[in-house]
Specification:
The chain is mostly helical. It is about 40% helix and about 5% strand. The protein is built from 9 helices and 5 strands; from the N terminus they run ααααααβββααββα. The strands form 2 sheets. It has a 3-stranded antiparallel sheet, with no helix packed on it. Helix 4 (about 75-85) crosses helix 5. The longest helix is centred in the C-terminal third of the chain and has 26 residues, at about 220-245. Bound molecules: zinc ion (ZN). Zinc ion (ZN) binds near residues 139, 145, 168 and 170. This is 11707_t:CDS:1.
Amino acid sequence: MAWGLKLTGIEDVQEHEQDLNGDVKMDDTSGSDSDYTKYWIDWFLSTKGNEYFCEVDEEYILDRFNLTGLNSEVQHYVQALDLISDTLEEELDDEMREAVEKSARHLYGLIHARFIITSRGLAKMLEKYKKADFGRCPRVLCSNQQLLPVGLSDQPYTKSVKLYCPRCEDIYNPKSTRHASIDGAYYGSTFPHMFFQVYPHLLPPKSNERYVPKIFGFKIHEIAKQHRWQDQQREEQQRRITMGNEGNNINT
Ligand SMILES: [Zn+2]
């Protein structure tokens, strides 16, 4: 459950081999509480609900320049950063540990938003996009187009993450409640648009195909359009008649 459990079992990590994909195998030990992993980021990424996150490069996190300003946005910043980079040596009581864990998740999210608009980050998100890790557009005429996460705001605690479809250029709520509660600021408002600036060849072709609503086979739009045109003509005519009656000759 908590990272505390995982941290205390860190001496035993040699038993846990990492496979080539960076996935940590956890099935080689007995007991359900033994799902600790070597690295905090691996643990974070393997947690259910965190599938939209990519792995931020260690070098990126360790370069202080990349984290400018985040210290004022995250509580327990120093410990949270140490926890993320697996260098937390301080003994913390349960309450403090929980607070630091929470801060670490928030800090990782904020770093993630910055990282995914770098070329390395975009490349990592590209791999996830190809695998449709963010799901596919629910719109029938978008033919299962893969989606990309997007924030509606760059400010944390304002809006949860949405999914952007490059084909219909609309946004959708994630299907799972776990994903729907992720802070949109962990992806940012720029990401998907930067993505297609860098990979323009991946932009799906725009289709003019539209769903046409019909009632008993008649197109509703056309009837409505015709009605609007008729109303307009009637009003116009009425106006001309009134003006004629008043003897106005403005429109010669
Ligand atoms: Zn779509």
